[in-house]
Amino acid sequence: MQIWVDADACPVVIREILFRAAERTGVRMTLVANKALRLPVAANLRFLQVPQGFDAADKRIVELMERDDLVVTADVPLAAAAIEKGGIALNPRGELYTKENVRERLSVRNFLDELRSGGVNTGGPPALSQRERQLFANQLDSWLARRAKLMSQTSSGS
């Protein structure tokens, strides 16, 4: 069980929370982006650069991830693909995607895309609030606790 980060659009403050969690727990984390990123030096952190192109990072994450891996992304189609593959998807605002809510989010996303293509300015998301940062950290801690529990059960043969 590892963490995959759709790093092109991941807010710096969320990456910092992820780096601290990876350092504290030793969980393997891979950041995937089409532009170079600076990472702390650690054996459990990797950076995977993909070519420029529509959804290149998303496709690579889905290709490499495994069941129960955590995918951190604001990209709803990537979240849907991760869930379909048996992974867990978490929005940088702290919202855990589920099979149920990801379908709704896809519908809203598609509707807004249609509006934008018709010339309507739908605006962007608001700035990340302190509450959302805390919600993200709490969801991450919950996943890490489940991971630790599964790892200990596996190592004890239960």
Structural class category: alpha/beta
Query: What average pLDDT do the residues reach?
Result: 89
Helix proportion range: 40-55%
* H and E string: EHEEHEHEEHH
Number of helices: 5
Gyration radius, rounded:
16 Å
Strand element count: 6
* Cα distance spanning the termini: 17 Å
What is the compact description of this entry?
The protein is of the alpha/beta class and 158 residues long. The protein has helices spanning 12-25, 56-64, 76-84, 99-117, 130-156, and strands at 3-6, 29-33, 45-49, 70-72, 88-90, 96-97.
What key attributes describe this structure?
158 residues, alpha/beta, 14% strand
How would you explain this protein's 3D organization?
The protein is α/β, with parallel strands linked by helices and 158 residues long. The chain has 5 helices and 6 strands, in the order βαββαβαββαα. It has a 6-stranded mixed β-sheet, sandwiched between helices. Helix 1 (12-25) runs parallel beside helix 5 and helix 3 runs antiparallel to helix 4. It is globular and about 55 Å long. The relative contact order is 0.15.
Write the layout of secondary structure elements.
Layout: E1 3-6, H1 12-25, E2 29-33, E3 45-49, H2 56-64, E4 70-72, H3 76-84, E5 88-90, E6 96-97, H4 99-117, H5 130-156
Parallel strand pairs: 1-2, 1-4, 2-3, 4-5
Antiparallel strand pairs: 5-6
